[in-house]
User: Which sequence fits this backbone?
């Protein structure tokens, strides 16, 4: 029930099968990561190899949804790894809103999983606007390759472990106990639009309408791509970012060499980068 490590079975037939069935291209992802996750599924189903698994998929089409959940990176929690969120709260969001004017605030959370990061941003934006007594137009677009994760995110309901890093003030103000979990306030949820989008497709999400984002977050997603594709996706994200806008990466991710002259880190170790130039 293990993959052959001396001559690994080709992933191509299985990836082609998924591309044909769901129009999702996992060819850009790290083969090592895909193999690790597939091996877990093989063990669970007591299947000997990928060929047997692909045959199983053909006989049990409902397994495709489970496989997509396994291959997609959807595990997170609110305010994960606090430094970037502290900088966003104290420096970047106030500056972003002050410069927004009548056109409002446009944020893209790429690879949003089940919505924890997008809603964390929404809480910070909403809370700041409440404190300042202002109400600029706000659009936070949150996208992910996993349609089921997007569906769950739209509910805004989470188990307690997802809220471990939520401070008491935010917890009391923006969450209510609901069964064995917590429901996020409707006013915060209303700031976020969720949509399906594949980062490797090379185009901006159609649901965003705009391509001139002031803030783009793509954290702990690109590390799972092949190096060349990860660099290309970063460049595509940067192209969707307005001059003077911010790009937020994960703690294990670095800026692509091709962007080193146009995106500078705002604080050492923050993994938040600002695009050169200004936008009137």
Assistant:
């Amino acid at each position: 029930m293990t993959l052959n490590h001396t001559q690994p079975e080709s992933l191509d037939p299985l990836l082609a099968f998924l591309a044909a069935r769901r129009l999702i291209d996992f060819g850009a992802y790290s083969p090592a990561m895909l193999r690790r996750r597939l091996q877990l599924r093989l063990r669970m189903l007591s299947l000997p190899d990928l060929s047997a698994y692909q045959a199983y998929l053909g006989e049990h089409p409902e397994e495709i949804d489970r496989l997509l959940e396994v291959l997609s990176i959807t595990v997170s929690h609110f305010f994960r790894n606090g430094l970037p969120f502290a900088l966003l709260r104290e420096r970047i969001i106030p500056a972003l809103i002050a410069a927004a004017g009548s056109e409002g605030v446009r944020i893209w959370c790429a690879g949003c999983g089940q919505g924890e990061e997008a809603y964390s941003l929404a809480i910070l934006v909403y809370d700041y606007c409440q404190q300042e007594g202002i109400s600029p137009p706000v659009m936070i677009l949150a996208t992910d390759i996993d349609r089921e994760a997007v569906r769950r995110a739209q509910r805004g309901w989470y188990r307690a472990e997802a809220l471990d890093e939520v401070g008491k003030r935010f917890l009391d103000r923006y969450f209510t106990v609901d069964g064995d979990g917590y429901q996020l306030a409707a006013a915060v949820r209303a700031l976020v639009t969720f949509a399906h989008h594949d980062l490797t497709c090379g185009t901006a999400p159609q649901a965003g309408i705009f391509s001139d984002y002031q803030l783009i977050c793509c954290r702990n997603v690109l590390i799972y791509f092949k190096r060349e594709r990860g660099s290309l996706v970063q460049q595509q994200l940067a192209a969707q970012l307005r001059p003077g806008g911010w790009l937020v990466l994960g703690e294990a991710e670095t800026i692509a060499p091709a962007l080193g002259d146009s995106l500078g880190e705002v604080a050492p170790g923050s993994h938040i980068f600002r695009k050169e130039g200004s936008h009137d």
Observations:
- The two ends are 59 Å apart (CA to CA).
- The longest strand covers residues 241-249.
- The beta strands are 105-110, 138-144, 157-159, 175-178, 181-184, 192-196, 213-218, 241-249, 263-265, 272-275.
- The CA atoms of residues 39 and 73 lie 16 Å apart.
